[in-house]
Amino acid sequence: MKKTVRLAKNAGFCFGVKRAINLAEEASSDHPEIVTLGPIIHNPQMVEHLRRKGISPVEEDDLPTDKPVIIRSHGITKELRKRLEETSPSVIDATCPYVDNCMQHAKQLSKEGYPVIIYGNKDHPEVIALKSYIAGESYILSDEDRLPDKRFSKLAVISQTTKSIEGFQKLIGKLIPSVKELRVFNTICAATSVRQSSSYNLAKESDLMIVIGGKNSSNTQMLFNICNNIVETLHIEEAEELDCKILEEKSNIGLTAGASTPDWIIVEVYNKIMKCFRDEEKLISKIKDIPGYKEE
Amino acid sequence: MKKTVRLAKNAGFCFGVKRAINLAEEASSDHPEIVTLGPIIHNPQMVEHLRRKGISPVEEDDLPTDKPVIIRSHGITKELRKRLEETSPSVIDATCPYVDNCMQHAKQLSKEGYPVIIYGNKDHPEVIALKSYIAGESYILSDEDRLPDKRFSKLAVISQTTKSIEGFQKLIGKLIPSVKELRVFNTICAATSVRQSSSYNLAKESDLMIVIGGKNSSNTQMLFNICNNIVETLHIEEAEELDCKILEEKSNIGLTAGASTPDWIIVEVYNKIMKCFRDEEKLISKIKDIPGYKEE
Hints:
The structure is a homodimer.
Chain A: E1 4-7, H1 15-30, E2 34-37, H2 44-51, E3 55-58, E4 69-71, H3 78-87, E5 91-93, H4 97-111, E6 116-119, H5 125-132, E7 138-141, E8 152-159, H6 165-175, E9 179-185, H7 190-204, E10 208-212, H8 218-228, E11 233-236, E12 252-257, H9 263-276
Parallel strand pairs in A: 1-12, 2-3, 2-4, 4-5, 6-7, 6-8, 8-9, 10-11, 10-12
């Protein structure tokens, strides 16, 4: 049986994540120790990799006053930003520009008197940050949540950048009958939607999908859900979680990775699969672009 | 076999139609001859009824300059309104206030630089009027039409007041992926949607639906489509079109009527059904409210 392994056309690091990692690494060349407020991205392996370079995540309560602080890609609340600016010697803002754009919309809509619905997960740091910019009435709704039990003369809707477009479309559809003026900002990141659609397409042609990315990564979880609706799907963070046994009966393996998954982990997983197949081929095409990656 | 005839909870004249008829009748008490620009409502029987009172529809090219003119409930184009104001001795504006509200939104959105999509039928007078108030880019889309083949940074959507909410929801859903900011004014009239939902509910409990209203009435056609998807449905304009034969095998007859259907026609249809059933009961409860109706 001929076996194939294919990587989704769009997978791995997005613009905002690359930018955050680059900002952190640039800063670390000037400062031996830097802190990030929470994990800089939702990928434990990358966080560990940076820790070895002196870039460590800290919790809000443990913020040092003598080290530069990096605001991670998900952004932070208005209140916390104010506190950072008062207490930290230097603040490096690695908030994803698309997330920041979403916050600007939230602020403006609220100022214009629109109640705002955030389509997102209420515990996600991006959503928590976003909500802090809304002065007036607001709601956080995800797929299973009930709509507010009222009619609105006007209402705005924005989305966590990493939610699925299908869920967003459904929510908007459900809102229409009870709203006179609905103002929708489609703030779902293009990187998110192309990762979703290319994973979807690959899943349809595979008999096993492997989704690589942080267990705490919302966009990775979404890729898992999309693929798992189509075909048997595994969600792993790194190569060592992969058991060769599961590959035995499979002939078309599809690989995809969340926007916070570094390429070297994708390569490791690919090589692990190849090892399982007792094959010598390697996925080397992407090694060059990996920030901070050294061949071992 | 016990037979029942039930009238949908919401059926017949809506606020805007009642208002237009009342305005016309009030005006006719001062002027022996008045013209309406096109049929005042989409119901040939009511138009004929008014004609006998000296209120006659004329086409745009035959506009008299010596008689008062009534602008009908669907409204007219900006250009035609200007012309009327210049040439007619007096103009009575019977544009439905909900249609007028929709025009105000169209005008304002266009002024704010939004391309505007009108969800409606391109030949409907309301839609033709609406479009004339949009100075910039605009599109008229109905259910089968393809979306514009482009991405929009901002886009507004309004609806003909008598379209179905389900179709509107579907259109909005389809637009979302290709638009950054989508501004939706749900201008579907509540009277339209309650007529639709009460017809839908009644159809589910009937084995024949009879939809009464002008063959040229968009909202009546919509009621027909909704009912016809559920159960065998007839669309008639008046009682004489009803053939007793079709009722023979039916035991639960549902009646509904478009927003431009006068109550006396509903009563006539009901009486015709009762005659078919050789039964003496009459649906007399609504006769009182019918504008201009005299028992014969």
